[in-house]
Amino acid sequence: EFAIAAEHATFFDPHVDRGLIPAEEPLLYLHMIPWQWVMRIALLGTKDRLDAQTAKAIGLVTEVVPKEELMPTAYRYAEIIAQQSPDAVQHAVELLWKCKGLPLAQALDAGWMAIGAHSSSPDIEEGMRAFLEKRPPRWGPTAS
After folding, report:
1. Could you state, in chain order, the average pLDDT of each consecutive group of 10 residues for the chain (144 residues)?
2. What angle do CA 74, 75, 78 make, to 5 degrees?
3. Residues 24, 27, 32, 33: what is their CA dihedral angle, to the nearest 10 degrees?
4. Residue 3, Cβ neighbours under 10 Å: how many?
5. Based on the number of CB atoms within 10 Å of its own CB, is 67 exposed (0-12), middle (13-18) or buried (19 or more)?
6. Over the range 105-143, which residues count as b (16 or more CB within 10 Å of their CB) and which as e?
7. Would you call 50 exposed, middle or buried from its count of C-beta atoms within 10 A (0-12, 13-18, 19+)?
8. pLDDT score of 141
9. At 109, is the secondary structure helix, strand, or coil?
């Protein structure tokens, strides 16, 4: 859902070098980075590699870290996400992907529908109880 790169990383798409149409990654990139960068990556193949700082500057990655910090950083973010409500995380990812590229009014309508559908989740009650009791939430069957 977001990418972290090591300082030494480079980014490219080798499809055209092999006579293939670069159809998957560049189509995803169309929703992430400006059109001209997608075209550059798709058409120049392995002859042009974006460095990690450029990838960050155009929005392809969210963070650049030293090589030795890459996995600890990724694990730290994974641990943070794992501590959140699994139900809320799953529905947030689904909603955000569903609404990506929609006009704002449609996205907001979908958001309100998702909130309504999610309103009976036991995670909401546990999250509020944990907040009031000043303790970490206990998600899942052990919540009550």
Report:
1. 96 95 90 95 96 97 98 97 94 94 94 93 94 94 52
2. 90
3. 110
4. 15
5. exposed
6. eebeeeeeebeeebeeeebeebbeeeeeeeeebebeeee
7. buried
8. 66
9. helix
For 26-40, give the DSSP string. HHHHTTTS-HHHHHH
The reported pTM is: 0.81
CB atoms within 10 A of CB 60: 19
Strand partners, 4: 63
The DSSP code sequence of 78-103 is HHHHHHS-HHHHHHHHHHHHHHTTS-
Element (H, E) at 105: helix 104-118
List phi, psi (to 5°) of 137.
Answer: -70, 155
